[in-house]
Amino acid sequence: MRILIAEDEPISRHMLESFLTQWGYEVIVAHDGDEAWWTLQREDAPALAILDWMMPGMDGTQICREVRKRIGAPYTYLILLTAKSQKQDIVQGLEAGADDYLTKPFDPDELRVRLRAGRRILDLQEQFLSMREAARFPNTHDFMTGLWNREAILGMLRQKLGRDRHDAAPVGVILVDLDHFKQINATYGAAAGDAVLREAARRVRSCVRLYDSVGRYGGGEFLIVVPGCYSSEVIAIAEKVRATMSREPMDILGGAIVVTASVGVAATDENKNASADLLLRGAGEAARKAKGHRNRVELATAADAEP
Prior knowledge:
By secondary structure, the chain is an alpha/beta fold. It has 2 domains: 2-138, Response regulator (Rossmann fold, 3-Layer(aba) Sandwich), CATH 3.40.50.2300; 150-305, 2-Layer Sandwich (Alpha-Beta Plaits). It contains 10 helices and 12 strands. The chain has helices spanning 10-22, 33-40, 60-69, 87-95, 108-140, 150-164, 181-188, 190-207, 231-247, 276-291, and strands at residues 2-6, 26-30, 48-52, 77-82, 100-103, 171-178, 213-216, 221-227, 250-252, 255-257, 261-267, 297-299. It is elongated.
């Protein structure tokens, strides 16, 4: 676990660092309040910080108040290190947002116990967030493949079009339709069909960029939302998906099944104000054309998107 130490007094800082390192913690050192505040704003900020009350720049209570003002950021457990021992001082520090305090000169055993309490709180919070995310998962994800479900991926497409059309950033969609998927289910059984879906989803994910979105669109269909790309770039991604799908047989329930996909592509090249419905209609019609040949990529024309 990583811990921030913000202490301007060299001897106290060295003692803290020595004990924490000895106990197995990874230590980040700040020599004043401003450096500590900068560290806590970083994306990889430590989840626990020991802050000296009185130090150059921002003092410990100021940092506590600023940290507690943040909305949406991961919780940071704050321990104030202070020479003040009066009850009103301790209350002031806790009201500023500190979770705990330690008086100078600190006792190593007391420090270790308070750190253990802080870790327990952070672990409980992580468990709570994991449980909350798990509760939300069925509402936004497809249980079979782990991809976004139909409602979620369509929402992302509409959001992307609504945000990006103002600056004319292109948006593309790729509709991947597994060939003969119903026949696979009929021939090998539903369990094999489910395994094919999971492996197909894995292969699709391996072909896209980190900021592309992939969802299960229908029975054997996947929808990819591709922001910031023109038709030629979207086609390149679609061709990669098609080739990856059929390159190697899928090892399904002890047998090998060759799976191919027909892929339709649509993008906002010609119509920057295209709606989600128009793009989906175009990609669907292009996929239907590709289906006539199997294992092929087709680009939607302007006519394909017409009602």
